[in-house]
């Protein structure tokens, strides 16, 4: 979240599952595919769908979803490889430090309310120009500000 945008939290485990499963079966309405939904879906898939190899399969899942709901995957819109792979890493590390048995909604909402949930979180690692470049959208690009470390706070988030 940025200073002027509080995160949209989830009301229940079922609401989180709806987003994750709606992404997979392409039934999630396009307006519901928000920043918060992206993070919730990733956390849900990592935690409750371990049979899915996210680094390998999530690009196709998101790209297919985008097309199914009328979007495109271009050099300026749709699927973004670096952001997707970065959040898989960040959220996997986040989950490793959550209490065993924590309700799904509690994990998701804590993520969204913390620094990892900020819309500008990755800008602590990548410059805006690099993160939003065609190269970063199409493939993995290493951070240019600081390494993406487990549990690290962003260097200088935008507000």
Describe, in short, the structure shown.
Mean pLDDT is 92; it is low at 153-159. With 159 residues, the chain is mainly α. It is built from seven helices and no strands.
Structure description:
With 159 residues, this protein is mostly helical. The chain is built from seven helices and no strands. Helix 1 crosses helix 2 (35-48) and helix 3 (54-68) crosses helix 4 (81-96). It is globular. The model is unreliable at 153-159 (pLDDT under 50).
Task: Explain the layout of strands and helices.
Layout: H1 13-24, H2 35-48, H3 54-68, H4 81-96, H5 104-113, H6 128-131, H7 134-138
Helix pairs in contact: 1-2, 1-5, 2-4, 2-5, 3-4
Principal-axes shape call: globular
Distance between the termini: 9 Å
Quaternary class: single chain
SSE succession: HHHHHHH
- How many strand units? 0
Low-confidence stretches: 153-159
Report on the biggest sheet.
Answer: none
The structure class reads mainly alpha
Helicity level: 40-55%
Q: Give the overall pLDDT as a whole number.
A: 92
Rg, nearest Å:
15 Å
* Strand content range: under 5%
The number of helical elements comes to 7
What would the keywords be for this entry?
159 residues; mainly alpha; disordered C terminus; 48% helix; single chain; 7 helices; 0% strand
């Amino acid at each position: 979240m940025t200073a002027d945008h509080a995160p949209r939290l989830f009301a229940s485990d079922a609401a989180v599952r709806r987003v994750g499963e709606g992404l997979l079966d392409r039934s999630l309405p396009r307006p519901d595919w928000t920043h918060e939904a992206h993070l919730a879906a990733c956390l849900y898939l990592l935690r409750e769908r371990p049979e899915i190899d996210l680094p390998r399969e999530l690009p196709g899942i998101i790209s297919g979803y985008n097309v199914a709901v009328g979007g495109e995957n271009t050099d300026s819109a749709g699927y973004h490889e670096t952001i997707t792979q970065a959040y898989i890493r960040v959220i996997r590390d986040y989950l490793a430090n959550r209490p065993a048995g924590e309700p799904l909604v509690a994990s998701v909402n804590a993520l969204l309310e913390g620094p990892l949930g900020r819309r500008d979180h990755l800008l602590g690692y990548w410059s805006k120009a690099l993160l939003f470049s065609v190269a970063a959208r199409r493939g993995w690009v290493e951070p240019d500000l600081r390494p993406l470390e487990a549990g690290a706070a962003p260097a200088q988030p935008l507000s």
